[in-house]
Amino acid sequence: MNKNPEVDVYLAQKAHPMTAEIERVREIILSAHDQMEETIKWNSPTFMYKGNMASFFMNAKKHVSLMFHKGAYLPNPTGLLEGEGKEGRTVRFADLQEIELRKEDLKTVVLSWVHYREETK
């Protein structure tokens, strides 16, 4: 798992009310593919594989929110990706229980991104 110490520091300093949930989503995403990386971009933890995949929306305080920047280009068989924007899609989790229930769906979205980037690069 490619945890970036810069993200560790950012999350510790941010003291977000849903830090445990954010950390769990982070672990799921980073463990989904061995080349998935993370950094701080746009003042938010951002996940990357051959480009920017998704960023946490850190202003959300009552749920974990991720913006998949090109989520409209990904298949969505589980319905995890929400929204109807031109490119972006959102994923939201209310709590740790929902994260655990939907972790395989999240991994599917992440691996769909990897496949998409392999096909488009």
Proportion of helical residues? 40-55%
Number of domains: 1
Note poorly predicted spans. none
Rg from Cα: 13 Å
Mean pLDDT: 95
Task: Give me the strand/helix succession.
Answer: HHEEEEEH
Any idea of the CATH topology?
Aspartate Aminotransferase, domain 1
Number of strands: 5
The appropriate CATH architecture is Alpha-Beta Complex
- Class per helix and strand makeup: alpha+beta
Please give a structural write-up:
With 121 residues, the protein is α+β, with helices and mostly antiparallel strands. It has a single domain, classed as Aspartate Aminotransferase, domain 1 (Alpha-Beta Complex), CATH 3.90.1150. The chain has three helices and five strands, in the order H-H-E-E-E-E-E-H. It has helices spanning 5-14, 19-32, 96-120, and strands at 37-41, 44-48, 52-56, 64-68, 89-93. Strands 1-2-3-4-5 form a five-stranded antiparallel beta sheet. Strand 1 and strand 2 form a beta hairpin. Helix 2 (19-32) packs parallel to helix 3.
In summary, what is this structure?
The chain is of the alpha+beta class and 121 residues long. Helices cover 40% and strands 21% of the residues. It has a 5-stranded antiparallel β-sheet.
